[in-house]
Amino acid sequence: MSVLPLLRTSNRIFLSTCAATLLALAAVPAAALPPIGSADVAIADPDVPPPPTTPCVVPLYEAFTFIGFDNQPFAYAPPSACPGPWGKVVLSLDFDVTAGRQFDRTGRIWLNGANIYFGTTQEPRATVAPTWHIERDLSDYSALFANAGGGYVELGNVVDGTYTGIIHGSARLAFYPRTSGLDRPPRPDRVLPLAAGPDGGIVDLVGDARLAVTLNLPTNIERAYLDVIAQSQGDDEFWYLCVPDALAGELQSCPGSGFRESQVFIDGVAAGVAPVYPWLYTGAIDPGLWRPTPSIQTLAFEPYRVDLTPFTGSLSDGRPHTVSIGVFNAQNRFSTTANLLLYLDRGSAHTRGAVTANTLSFPPTPAVDVVDDSNADAIVKTVGVTSTRAFRIAGYVDTSHGRVVTTLDQRIAFSNVQDFDIATDGSDYRQALVQRTTVDATATIQQGHRPARFQRAHSEWPLAIEYRYDGAADGSATQTTTIDQGLDRALEVGLAGHALFRATREQRMQTADTLQLDADGNLLGRVGQGSTQSYAYRSSLGACYDRRITTQDGVLSAVADGRGCPGRRNHLTWLDAFAQVASSFWGASLRQLP
Fold first, then answer.
1. pLDDT class for 18, splitting at 50, 70, 90?
2. Rounded to 5 degrees, what angle do the CA atoms 143, 442, 541 make?
3. Full domain range(s) for residue 162
4. CB under 8 Å to 290, separation ≥6 — which residues?
5. Which tens digit of pLDDT belongs to each residue from 384-402?
């Protein structure tokens, strides 16, 4: 059969979907910000755009107080007035911390054993009690919410005579009924946690340790994804500033080199890579850098989604299978969890298949390069570590609608270059980092003689840090830090080589601060404290969101919305999903094409 008639038919279906989508396209108000001049938390990220239906809201917990390290439990029941399946499920979180002294703390929420939130907190100030609001689209986790159960919050927080900031928080789920006439993408039929136990919990990975869970899986799996979070903690918190072990002492830095990656195994076989995003917490290097705007995803981490679909035929054989995660080069430590998302073939009780190609292998072989220009007065070195890998994983699964062949092609390039200039008398210290992670991933799905469907994603994670400590003859000093971080993604989904949907997301954080210190190391003041953060999202369905916020001397100083958008207004559609879940959303929708 000719490809063109199918493309015409599929385009008609797609365009009708677009027309219905555009009916729901509206000027959605951007997320609320504090007023200009406020020292409260301000981020550029949008809230999740709601569908045009009235949700049922289920509180998970209200006004919990976080003192100490005991987990705080809550009960859960699905909303009887809004039975599933739902058009969208949104998690909303509100936090505050009292004024005073407090570190940044890590928070996690578990429900029916699965992680539904993972992030860190904003640090307070002596006279500033920050508040912040977080939303997360959990529609792909709908199967998790179908049954009553319970969960708990982990948010350990020391409160004593020194650390006085008390953290409070509330959480709720909003369940939006489906609407008629709009696209109804299928959601995963199973959400299976990879955690420390049946109730949840992270596993801290060091060295060759793995988070491993053996599962009895359904026998009719058609597609599979793994959402991975590996949070750097302890000696690994600043892993991107680490150097090879032999240089750590001389360069006054952490060991292990500046390269880490999460690795996914199925029954001990290499199955996928989840690059580690360099999250920067609000205590990172200089807390003043993050007042009042934290860095990208600091308050709510986004899981990295690994496509495991080529393995579904093997996973459906009725035998137990072990899915495990390790972190290459982990020193001490990466807090790790994941959720396995399964799409089932509802027309068959048993799918069958096999992996036909797998060129991925572990461990990687990063290359380390050191250039030494040291002299009598200073240690001057450039330390670089690079890793480039390209691999293909392919497999087929025989379903009720025929054989489906999935081929994944992925190329991951990592580069970390650090320049050091350290005075031998200890008076001056300079460390400058330029790091970039680039991921190009293409998934091709072939079903019989039909035109192949494809999904292409390109991601870039740039990070530049410069740290300077300059000592004066009287013992006083200045400490200057500048950071430029980004998170970019471009997504394209199509049929027979023709793109039907495109989306881009670009995030930036630029911040700087200079500390003035006396001869005893006491802080005298700050100079040049300020930041800019931007979030831009566009899709071929007409969605356009662009916000840029500027801070100066610890307060919000300017906000610019809608740059480059029609009418300079942010327009969002609730179906677009901000590209973070668009891969499964539109990939699933294309399954319905002829």
1. very low
2. 70
3. 53-178
4. 122, 123, 280, 282, 284, 298, 511, 531
5. 999 999 999 999 999 999 9
